Structures are given as C-alpha cells and as structure tokens.
C-alpha cells in the first residue's frame, strides 16, 4: 500500500495537502492518533485499498512519540511509506491566525490556556520536532496554494528510494527556507540582473544559462557544492535519513541560484531520487 503521513504545524497548509491527496485518489483520514495507524492500515489493506493518506498532528500529541517506530514497522512490512511535514515561519502563522480569527489548537487545552499565540506556536514546533526529523519538510511561508499542490503531487509521485534529494533555489531577501538541511550562498557570483537583456529572464532560460555557464567561478562553485554533497551523502544515508534538502540562494532567487540548482541536480539525477524546486520563481 502507498501510505502518506502528513504532519506539521497548525496553519501551515495540511488541509490543502489532504485535499490534494484526496483528489489524487488517496483515502484520507484526518487527525488520527498515531497509535491507531497500524490498525487502520490493516483494515484498509484487507478492504483492498492501495492508497492511504493520514494526517497526524498535535491534536493527538500524546500518541506522536510512537509514530517514527510505527513508520519503520510499516516499511518493514513492505508498505511504501512517505512522511510529509509542513512548516511555516512565525510571522506567517501569526498573520494567518489573525486573518482566520481562529484559536491555536494548543490554546484550547487547559495546560496551555494562558499561553500567547506565539508561545503556542513555539511549543507546537518543539512537540513536532521529532516528526519533522524523519519527514520530508516543506516550508509553506509565502507559498502560493497552487505551488504547494504541485509540490505535493511531485513528492507522492516520486519513486521510493533510500534517499530523496531535493534541490531548491531561494532568495535571501525573502529569508532562508525553513526546510533546508544544507544552505549554500552563491551571491558572490556575477549577477545577470545587471544585464538589461537578461534581467527579465531566469536561470531556466538559455541566454542566462549560457552567460553563467561561461564564467569560471560559476563552474567552480557548482563543482564545489556538488563535491560537498557527494562526499557527505553516505553519512546522511548511514544516519537513516530518507530526505535531504539542499538550498542554494542568491539575492533575488531568479538567476544564479536557479541555474546552479539545475546544474547540480543534473549531476545526481542519474543515481539518486531527485526533486527540484525554485521558490522565488514559484511566486
């Protein structure tokens, strides 16, 4: 059975993800305590279902500790299990709660009734940290809904592999993405933005690629990042990591970081499960 476990912070977009998975043919169960996951899968497997998505979050916080072990057991039984974790920066979460006028789930619990919204957000982040550590993390801060939908489809469509490598470009002026495991800064490279003919284009366009590809320092930077990731990949595999996100940033996230990500991803595509995202272009 193909199983997707969806978790993350309240207000980060889990409802959107569950609707996407439902539209993709998954049977979806929201807010299921982690302790009930094995029983549910046994029942749905017997019923002949092949795709199941389960949302687990802090509304059933006491059961979350068992989730990492449960996922390992399900994989040992032959199930194709993916874990997706959504996170968002504090400012975005506060804005979303302000707009919706809803209370944070932790604020409804007696032990947290006197906490501020920011304190609830931070406590939830701490509670969910072990789940984030075993999941593919997506930072939805400033992310358009249609982009999140597309990224979720890419994620669930990817073949199961020992390690999924995700390369993403981003703009430093929009902050470092929260889902990054490794971050590289390429702002020191020549910027096509200052060429008026190249300014409206992106690193996906041939003229920009030709311009950057002809610069020795750009080639050196790409080579250095590629060698660094290649050297340390075995260590991440040894640490039983299923997902590794490598973020490459420039000032605007339009030219240099995009081109570098494309070139680096090409190097690994032949031997790893690779996904590519461009955060600034998605906006």
Automatic annotation (TrEMBL):
Keywords: ATP-binding, GTP-binding, Nucleotide-binding
One matching Pfam family: PapZ_C
Residue stretches making up the RapZ C-terminal domain: 164-281
Signal peptide per UniProt: none
Residues in RapZ-like N-terminal domain copies: 1-157
Residues the record lists as binding GTP: 57-60
Gene3D superfamilies found in the cross-reference section: P-loop containing nucleotide triphosphate hydrolases
InterPro entries attached to this UniProt entry: P-loop_NTPase, RapZ-like, RapZ-like_N, RapZ_C, Sigma_54_int_dom_ATP-bd_1
NCBIfam families per UniProt: PRK05416.1
Entries under PANTHER family matching the protein: RNASE ADAPTER PROTEIN RAPZ (PTHR30448)
Protein name: RNase adapter RapZ
């Amino acid at each position: 059975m193909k199983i997707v476990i969806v978790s993350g912070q309240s207000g980060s977009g889990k409802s959107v993800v569950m609707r996407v998975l439902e539209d993709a043919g998954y049977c979806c169960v929201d807010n299921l305590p982690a302790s009930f996951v094995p029983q549910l899968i046994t029942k749905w497997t017997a019923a002949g279902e092949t795709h199941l998505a389960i949302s687990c979050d802090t509304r059933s916080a006491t059961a979350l500790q068992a989730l990492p072990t449960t996922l390992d057991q399900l994989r040992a039984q032959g199930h194709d299990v993916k874990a997706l974790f959504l996170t968002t920066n504090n400012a975005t979460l506060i804005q979303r709660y302000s707009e919706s006028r809803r209370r944070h789930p932790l604020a409804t619990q007696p032990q947290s009734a006197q906490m501020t919204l920011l304190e609830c957000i931070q406590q939830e982040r701490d509670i969910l940290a072990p789940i984030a550590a075993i999941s593919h993390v997506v930072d939805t801060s400033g992310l358009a809904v249609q982009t999140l939908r597309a990224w979720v489809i890419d994620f669930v469509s990817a073949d199961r592999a020992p390690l999924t490598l995700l390369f993403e470009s981003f703009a430093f002026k929009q902050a470092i993405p929260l889902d990054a495991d490794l971050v590289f800064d390429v702002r020191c490279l020549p910027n096509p933005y200052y060429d008026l003919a190249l300014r409206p284009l992106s690193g996906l366009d041939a003229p920009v690629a030709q311009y950057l590809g002809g610069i020795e320092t750009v080639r050196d930077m790409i080579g250095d990042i590629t060698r660094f990731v290649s050297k340390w990949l075995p260590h991440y595999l040894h640490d039983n990591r299923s997902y590794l996100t490598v973020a490459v940033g420039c000032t605007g996230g339009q030219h240099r970081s995009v081109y570098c990500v494309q070139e680096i991803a090409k190097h690994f595509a032949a031997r790893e499960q690779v996904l590519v995202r461009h955060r600034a272009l998605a906006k």
